[in-house]
Design goal:
This protein has 370 residues and is an alpha+beta fold. Among the domains are: 145 residues, Outer membrane protein assembly factor BamC (TATA-Binding Protein, 2-Layer Sandwich), CATH 3.30.310; 105 residues, TATA-Binding Protein (2-Layer Sandwich), CATH 3.30.310.170. The strands form two sheets. Strands 1, 2, 3, 4, 5, 6 and 7 form a seven-stranded antiparallel sheet that branches. Strands 8, 9, 10, 11, 12, 13 and 14 form a seven-stranded antiparallel sheet that branches. Helix 3 packs across helix 5, helix 4 packs antiparallel against helix 5 and helix 7 crosses helix 10. The two termini are 48 Å apart.
């Protein structure tokens, strides 16, 4: 019945467009009005009554141009193509972001491409890398005096330091941005007196705002210059960034399938979300605070394009009632347990999913991780 109604509507549209001059002809309702302005007649300017006093001039809102060659032309006029816009300079892939005293760099590139550029900047300025952790997107430098660094950045850091006679070390963290294929680069420094053996720990937030600002500004300039020369991609970062170190599909005490992911909750949330996007089902909603992904196994992933006119007319797109009737909705829950994250499948908050369904979904997630 639905397809028959679609065909009837299409036949009605086609029949109404043939032989109906009152609709489409020169005098029709839907006629081309593109040249109507050529029939417009010029009238005398508006005049105010002599007893009305006003200091405001009455200027025409749509004055007739004075460089019109002939005002009696009646031929069709073809509008020339607009000239292409002249772009003075392309926007940089790296921009400075600020929030209060915090400053970081936003990169229009995925972390795998940002990692080698950021790494190279610190090496070029004589920072010695102490530890690389591409799985978490971090690297740190050793304790160094300002005069051990390259002249430009060393002098600037010394000027921003609370004491010129001190040592500094840096932690760089690269995180996936809010938008796809973007990254955020954060820099936190630690400072101690020269010659001290105190192991000053990094803080989550900057306590050396002056030093960190200089580092971010210099890093932004350096990375922008390096990007213009053509960047490289870190295959190690591409493979291992936010990928868990270990993944195992087991069962809990009640025999329910559980996927154990060796990562903190933030990294696991990111990697499981990416694995779900690669699955052959639809992610209908998320709740980050509860650690929940809501999926519908009966529907394919969201289409990238809307159905066309004929697809809608012939009824190929399912109705809301049909989608609800065949829905197979489940919850993918992430829970921090010790040093790992457990991923489980639920029908709702009070009911676990059938074991075969849970194992099928978790197996796909496991295959798509990393």
């Amino acid at each position: 019945m639905k397809r028959l109604a679609g065909l009837s509507a299409l036949a009605l549209v086609i029949s109404s467009t043939s032989g109906c001059g009152w609709l489409w002809g020169d005098e029709g309702y839907f006629r081309d009005r593109g040249n109507d302005y050529l029939e417009a007649q010029q009238t005398a300017p508006m005049q105010l009554p002599p007893d009305v006093k006003t200091d405001k001039r009455l200027d025409p809102l749509l004055p007739i141009p004075r460089n019109v060659a002939e005002d009696n032309a009646r031929a069709d006029f073809e509008v020339p193509r607009p000239l292409p816009l002249q772009v003075a300079a392309e926007a940089s892939d790296f921009t400075l972001q600020k929030s209060g005293v915090s400053r970081w760099v936003l990169a229009q590139r995925p972390p795998a491409e940002v990692w080698p550029v950021a790494h190279q900047f610190f090496e070029d300025n004589n920072f010695r890398i102490a530890e690389d952790r591409p799985q978490t997107g971090e690297f740190t430098t050793t304790w160094q005096r300002f005069d051990e660094l390259s002249g430009g950045i060393g002098e600037r850091l010394k000027g921003a330091s609370s004491s010129g006679d001190s040592e500094v070390r840096v932690r760089v963290r690269i995180e996936p941005g809010v938008q796809r294929n973007t990254s955020e680069i954060y820099v936190v420094s630690a400072e101690r007196s020269a010659g001290s053996t105190a192991n000053t720990e990094f803080t989550e937030r900057s306590v050396n705002a002056g030093l960190d600002s200089v580092l971010v500004d210099q890093m932004l300039a350096g990375m922008s210059r390096d990007a213009e020369k053509g960047g490289s991609v870190s295959l190690l970062a591409a493979r291992d960034f936010d990928a868990p170190t270990r993944v195992a599909l087991n069962e809990d005490g009640s025999g329910n399938p559980v996927l154990s992911v060796g990562a903190d909750l933030d990294r696991a949330w990111s990697s499981v979300g990416r694995a779900l996007e690669r699955g052959d089902w639809r992610v209908e909603d998320i709740n980050r605070s509860l650690g929940l992904y809501y999926i519908n196994l009966a529907e394919k992933a969201e289409p990238t394009a809307k159905p066309g006119f004929f697809s809608r007319v012939f009824g190929s797109a399912p109705s809301k009632e049909e989608v609800e009737a065949r829905a197979e909705r489940y919850q993918v829950r992430l829970s921090q347990v010790g040093d790992s994250v457990q991923v489980t499948i639920e029908k709702n908050i009070n009911t676990v999913a059938p074991a075969d369904v849970a194992r099928r979904v978790l197996s796909v997630i496991q295959d798509n991780l990393g």
